[in-house]
Amino acid sequence: MQSFLPACGKEWHYEAPAHVLERRQQLREQLNGKVILAPLTKGGNLPFRRLCCDFDPQLPTMSEMAFARQLIKGDRVEKARLYKASNEACFGVQVATNNIAEGVKAAAAAQAAGASWIDINCGCPIYEATRRGMGAALLRKPTKLAKMVAGIAAAVELPVTVKIRTGESERKVNAPRVVALLEQAGAAAVTVHGRTMEQRYKKAADWALISEIVAASSLPIIGNGDILTHYEAADRWQASSCTALMVGRGALIKPWLFQEIREGRELLPTAAERVGIYRQVASYMKLHFGDDAWGKRKAFYFLPWHFAFFCRYRPLPAEAYLEQSRQHPLIATRADLAAEQVGENEADLPLLERLLRCENDAAHGPIADILWDSASDAEAAQQLQQLAEQQLEGWEQQLKASSRGDGADERAVEG
């Protein structure tokens, strides 16, 4: 393949072509002031993205990470990640690659699928990516990464963005250097997830470092990490001056978060209203996968799984939680402690509310079954009420007896 890079010695110097810089400006205008749905392994399926767009018609969204090599070989699963919902106005495709030629071919496939930009994954910490020298492993060799991005950006028609973590470990934080090289390489934007590869979700995102990167770069910087409420989003934006924000796990817990941020208020949906929201994503899965037995089998790889996050929803009024959120991210606060802070005894809540909050995985399949089969929101709510009367107490007792910690965060890797 033709080389788009000059020969270089120890120090790499490169000037991105004018057409690459023009795409950067165009993408800046598209994303400025926006909140973006993160690329989420499993969680970023098309029906869920469609649900999120219902709460913000202009929401920029991103696909699940696709492995470029399998994608260009025609792998059915990887190709499916490029499908775009009818209401996705601005859709980015994320790929994992460590090769210019593969990245160029993957970008062509993304463009043909209707993508607005292509993103190179340099943040995924899972072994399946890092063992191949992709994902967050690319942060180990910043100059090599920059050369790859420069080669892809110069050869494709889409803007090329990069999503990174702050480094491999706390001892090897190198995000400022990586961003400086990517700016030189012609990246259209960089998303900075404020944790290292080793930290995964165990520590709070480092928004102070994100702010430093924004101040030192002329690139559009997208800040990512620990946003669960509209007031946390406002605080992060004000403190960092990021071009845009990216939300992942917060959207999995409450897909209506995008409307809350856009309107600057908490929506506080009731249990019955949330049944309607969850039934909507079930209906989108029927449309996408099919409403027969085979379609249900494919949809149920996703639908019950989503309740590991939906069940974590709690009202978080600013008057009770704003100051706490500035000390520690609310997404890392245990749900039972959050309830206690506003004087809420979960045992006294209505059965339907308790069912929707049940963190026992055994409850999530039966809930999904009712949402799938019900002909209306009212019917779904009635059947869920009956389910709660019959089985909720047992599920709650099982959960109390279990020593299993909440591993939902580790189930949804942001690419």
What can you see in these coordinates?
Residues 37-293 form the DUS-like FMN-binding domain. Belongs to the Dus family. Dus3 subfamily. This is tRNA-dihydrouridine(47) synthase [NAD(P)(+)]. Keywords: Flavoprotein, FMN, NADP, Oxidoreductase, tRNA processing. Helix content is 50%, strand content 10%. The chain is α/β, with parallel strands linked by helices and 415 residues long. It folds into 2 domains: 18-263, TIM Barrel (Alpha-Beta Barrel); 271-403, no CATH class. Strands 1, 2, 3, 4, 5, 6, 7, 8 and 9 form a 9-stranded parallel beta sheet that branches. β8 (221-224), α10 (230-240) and β9 form a beta-alpha-beta unit. α7 packs parallel to α8 and α8 (175-185) packs parallel to α9. The longest helix has 25 residues, at 377-401. It starts with 17 loop residues before the first helix and ends with a helix.
Might you state the CATH topology name of the largest domain? TIM Barrel
Mean pLDDT, to the nearest integer, reads 92
| CATH homologous superfamily annotation of the largest domain | Aldolase class I
Share of helix, binned: 40-55%
Compute the number of structural domains.
2
The rounded Rg comes to 22 Å
Instruction: Note poorly predicted spans.
Output: 1-9
* Basic shape: globular
Spatial gap, N to C terminus:
28 Å
What order do the SSEs take from the amino end to the carboxyl end, as H and E? HEHEEHHEHEHHEHEHEHEHHHHHHHHHHH
Protein name: tRNA-dihydrouridine(47) synthase [NAD(P)(+)]
EC number: 1.3.1.89
Organism: Tetradesmus obliquus
Keywords: Flavoprotein, FMN, NADP, Oxidoreductase, tRNA processing
